[in-house]
Design a protein that fits this description.
Blueprint lengths: L4 H15 L3 H21 L4 H10 L7 H11 L14 H8 L20 H4 L1
Helix pairs in contact: 2-4
Length: about 120
């Protein structure tokens, strides 16, 4: 069975699409190359945005900030254990500082009564 013009075109497109996939691998390789520098900068107290911006402007990291954050969370979150680290989620730090709420709180406010009070209607 001979291939039609469209299926040949589609096969060529799929081959080209597969060639462009290693971009993700390139970003991971670039991050791993500067991983120790990023860890050092975090420990020195620099913000992640500042670190990425400097490395992006100098050409060391050619990808977006969101990609940088994903790599930091995946590869550095386990190794960075300082409590003042920017990797700590704000919600986690806030919940650990709050006292547990009492479970005997009664709801206040509106209470539905299915039988209307005729004096209150007018």
């Amino acid at each position: 069975m001979a291939k039609s013009g469209y299926t040949q075109e589609l096969a060529q497109w799929v081959k080209e699409k597969e060639k462009s996939k290693p971009l993700q691998d390139k970003s991971l390789v670039a991050f791993l190359a500067v991983k120790s520098n990023v860890k050092e900068a975090i420990e020195a107290g620099y913000a992640l945005k500042t670190i990425w911006q400097h490395m992006h402007d100098t050409g060391r990291l050619p990808y977006r900030y969101e990609t940088f954050l994903r790599h930091v969370k995946k590869h550095l979150a386990k190794t960075t254990e300082t409590p003042a680290s920017p990797l700590v989620d704000k919600e986690q730090s806030n919940t650990s500082e709050q006292e547990p709420k009492s479970k005997t709180i009664k709801p206040q406010g509106f209470a539905f009564n299915p039988t209307p009070n005729t004096k209150e209607l007018l």
